[in-house]
Fold:
Amino acid sequence: MMATTSDPGGTASVTAAVREGEYGAKVTVVEPGGAEFIPLADRHGTPLALFWTWMSPNLEFATVYVGVLGVLAFHQTLGQAALAIVLGSALGSLSHGVLGARGPGLGVPQMILSRIPFGFRGNAFPAALNAVTAGIGWFAVNSVSGALALNTLLGLPKVICLLVVVAAQIAIAFFGHNLVHAFERIAFPLLAVAFVLAAVVIFPKMHSSAAPGGGGLGGFLITLGAAFGYAAGWNPYASDYTRYFSPETSKRATALWGGLGVLVSCVVLELLGAASATLVAPQGSSPTSAFTHPMPTVIADLVLLAIALGAVSANAINVYSGTMSFLALGFDLPLALRRAIVAAGFGTLGFVVALFALDDVSTYEDFLLVIAYWIGPWLGVYFTDQWLRRGHHVEGYLFDRRHNPWAGWVSMLVAMVLSVWLFSNQQKYTGVVPSANASFGDIAFEVGFLLAGGLYWVLFRLQRTEPDELLVIPD
Structure:
């Protein structure tokens, strides 16, 4: 229930919707409730845990393939690809850390925090985009890579391999927050060892002459956008995994460990992918078998197992956070296990999409860029609003259905349309500027971020001024 009152000083207050049930640090209990405020008695965890929580889901083949694309699809030299990978990953990791730092204090998922600039109804725009991107899009991409790895390792039919991977992913997400954290911690050592061994084999064998470049500035900008899109793809999930921390938890430590987890894993595996793209694989090889082909059998088998495990690590988070985004739409679902039920539904839809993509990974390049197309403008609005509202009490907006400003969603929508129309450069659509100059590349996410932030800065002052709102936590 949400109630709005005013104190004698004129500051409004809103009663938080608090997650029901007892959960604590239990791992094998299904997390109750949905996307509500986490009660203070249930707070637990430390920022250091974020390092492996964000390392593990990136220690998988989808991350490797970003680097492969930089060399094979975007025609970069190894040096050019490395620079684009580091810059793009650093930008996405920086924003990830900053976003997650807000979770302990406000105690809600990331796409609930998005209600502050976008409003209760307007937030349906980015929340729905993320629910589809995470719970279905990323789920399908990672499920396919995991299934292909199991197929190569065990020789089982691809559909059977896909079923195994999907079942594990849905089960972890169904149990919820604590099992997700625990699984990422347990998976981390195996994943780290496997990919370190892969790096020991591949880096000495790479041939820089096999990556002659030729993509120029345009290829560099597309690689930069893909690397940013991959790292920033986690941004709309950031506070989902910090909201259980105590409100007194250090913001700096929360941002540092979350950002480092994304940065280190993305940079290392994408560089590994770029290096592997310079090695010759047997004709007709699947992407996963091409990657493991240069390795001794024992290491190759371990890496294939790690790719499958990494897919599960990534998709446990994708399904869980896709569910959080869906619940942020504000649907009234009274079931005590509404989060768990929605998670199972998203996993099932993701399985159907993955089934049709088992033999086609050609759309991955476009998928990475499309993610950046909407996340860039969303971040522009979100960070500009956080700056403009600094020093004000905005906690009450999280649960106030009357809080419906228009500047946020208008700025994001206009920035998305203009940046894609002018600067998109991918297989399905080429914008006005790249059409006139094929070597221009793709700067849609950069333009979208800056344009959305600038528009919001102006429109924020034109919309109706809203009073501060405190958040009241019921006993």
Observations:
- Residues 1-9 have pLDDT under 50 and may be disordered.
- The beta strands are 4-6, 12-15, 469-472.
- The domain at 4-472 is CATH 1.10.4160.10 (Hydantoin permease).
- The first strand starts at residue 4 and ends at 6.
